[in-house]
């Protein structure tokens, strides 16, 4: 079972139920929807479909939901090349139009069940092959532009944490907070971090983050000190002055 880190999923009750059912559980990292991509992609598709038919006040979405779900389950998926309904039941979904159109009624029940089982298993195997092919293509495209980043225990980093505040522009809000210290490396892409700024008597809480949310920490004050106050121009700088300064720096 894959879930986020909501309190309802981290409770002792859920933990005990998973142990009784012998269910293995994986927790996603915060602000990284790719870890649970299948669910997140379906949620986006479902929301997009609902947005096409919901009223202005958005109060009738629950009455539209059954029809949207029917359309989704009966639609052919690009990756699997089958509909979700066909992969589950081994046949196409029955619509009101199918009742009107002529259909074969001579098929024996025993033969029909056997054909249904065979057809469903063949479709699932083909869908699995199509998924593997699609994943291989996606991985190749990702690897072409991906550059691995590694951090060591003790390194200081910034952590990406999107925030929203009423009355403030989201574009101008800070996105990275820190510094955080790497306390443990859990995998090639997952790290345990802890803030070095303790604001209370208790030690700051540790968090599990994905490597894509991390950036090497650079002290802003040190960057200003290294630049030097004498390098800050007090008036507009001409091109000739810029060339002279560049020549002086190179020598």
UniProtKB/TrEMBL annotation:
Regions crossing the membrane: none
Gene3D superfamilies: Ribonuclease H-like superfamily/Ribonuclease H
GO MF entries: nucleic acid binding
One BP annotation, GO: DNA integration
InterPro entries: Integrase_cat-core (IPR001584), Integrase_p58-like_C (IPR054465), Retrovirus_Pol_polyprotein (IPR050951), RNaseH-like_sf (IPR012337), RNaseH_sf (IPR036397)
A family per Pfam: Integrase_p58_C
Domain Integrase catalytic: from-to ranges: 1-104
Superkingdom assignment: Eukaryota
Region (Disordered): 224-251
The name this protein goes by in its record: Integrase catalytic domain-containing protein
Organism: Araneus ventricosus
């Amino acid at each position: 079972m894959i879930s986020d880190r909501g309190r309802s999923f981290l409770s002792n009750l859920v933990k005990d139920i998973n142990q009784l059912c012998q269910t293995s559980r994986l927790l996603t990292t915060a602000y990284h929807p790719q870890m649970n991509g299948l669910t997140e992609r379906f949620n986006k598709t479902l929301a997009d479909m609902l947005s096409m038919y919901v009223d202005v006040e958005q109060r009738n979405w629950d009455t539209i939901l059954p029809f949207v779900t029917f359309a989704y389950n009966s639609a052919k998926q690009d990756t699997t090349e089958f509909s979700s309904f066909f992969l589950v039941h081994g046949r196409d979904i029955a619509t009101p139009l199918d009742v009107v159109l002529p259909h074969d009624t001579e098929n024996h029940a025993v033969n029909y069940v056997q054909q249904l089982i065979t057809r469903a298993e063949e479709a699932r195997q083909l869908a699995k092959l199509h998924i593997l092919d699609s994943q291989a293509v996606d991985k190749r495209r990702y690897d072409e532009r991906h550059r691995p980043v590694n951090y060591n225990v003790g390194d200081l980093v910034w952590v990406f944490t999107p925030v929203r505040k009423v009355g403030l522009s989201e574009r101008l809000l800070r996105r990275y907070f820190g510094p955080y210290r790497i306390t443990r490396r859990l995998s090639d892409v997952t790290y345990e971090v802890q803030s070095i700024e303790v604001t209370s008597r208790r030690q700051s809480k540790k968090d599990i983050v994905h490597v894509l949310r991390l950036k090497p920490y650079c002290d802003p004050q040190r960057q200003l000190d290294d630049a030097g106050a004498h390098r800050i121009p007090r008036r507009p700088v001409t091109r000739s002055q810029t060339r002279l300064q560049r020549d002086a720096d190179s020598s």
